Amino acid sequence: MLFFAEIVTLLVVETNRYYHQFLDNCEDGPSPQRDVTEAEMFAFLALTLQMGHTVQDRLEDYWMKMEQLCTPFYGQMMPRARYCHILRFLHFTDNNRNGDDRADDRLWKIRDLFEMIGMNFSKFYNPSEHLAVDEVNVKFKGRVLFKQHITKKSKRFGIKMLKLCDSTGYTYDMNVYLGKDRQRRHNT
């Protein structure tokens, strides 16, 4: 909870804001749903993490009612329609903010989340004197301008991150490599 209380609050606020902005912009949209709560966001995150352990073909299959394929955990935690609603409107920042910063910052959509995680990493742990800076390639198949190709890594295509780690493996600080021209502009 030390790491995630502020983050879940951010996710709830921005997800609800994005949903209300969507409702304001569409004339004949769906009937309004209630705002997402922190308890629902925790359940949503728990279900999303659990999906990595019980892999199904489609998202709908996690809520399958056929007895031989049923996993009742998902339906007991949250209805499928509610999960899909949260997934559709999940947001990390206000789209109406950061108008000038958006052109310069390739991470503007997740900048608040990224800074919050970095602050929590350094706030709750004092590193030992044995530190290491390491380069990590986070596997990513999507399209972003700063995706890297590193032939000697097992995950060849991904997002390159630089991490400051303790000898125990704890990440104390991290930075996303955004390309040569973008790195100089943000680190000055």
Describe the model:
The chain has 188 residues and is an alpha+beta fold. The chain has 2 domains: 5-89, no CATH class; 101-187, no CATH class. Helix content is 40%, strand content 15%. The protein is built from 7 helices and 4 strands. The protein has helices spanning 5-25, 38-51, 72-77, 80-89, 101-104, 111-123, 180-187, and strands spanning 131-139, 147-149, 157-166, 171-176. Strands 1, 2, 3 and 4 form a 4-stranded antiparallel beta sheet that branches. Strand 2 and strand 3 form a beta hairpin. The chain starts with a helix and ends with a helix.
Which whole number gives the mean pLDDT?
A: 84
- Largest beta sheet, briefly? 4 strands, antiparallel
Count of β-strands = 4
Number of domains: 2
Query: What is the helix/strand order?
Result: HHHHHHEEEEH
Instruction: Give me the secondary-structure category.
Output: alpha+beta
Question: Uncertain runs with pLDDT below 50, 5 residues or more?
Answer: none
Total DSSP helices: 7
Shape: globular
Q: In which range does the helix fraction lie?
A: 40-55%
Radius of gyration: 19 Å
From the N-terminal CA to the C-terminal CA, the straight-line distance is 33 Å
% residues in beta strands: 5-15%
Keywords:
15% strand, 4-stranded antiparallel sheet, 188 residues, alpha+beta, 40% helix
Q: Mind sketching the topology for me?
A:
Blueprint: H1 5-25, H2 38-51, H3 72-77, H4 80-89, H5 101-104, H6 111-123, E1 131-139, E2 147-149, E3 157-166, E4 171-176, H7 180-187
Antiparallel strand pairs: 1-3, 2-3, 3-4
TL;DR?
By secondary structure, this protein is an alpha+beta fold. The chain has two domains: 5-89, no CATH class; 101-187, no CATH class.
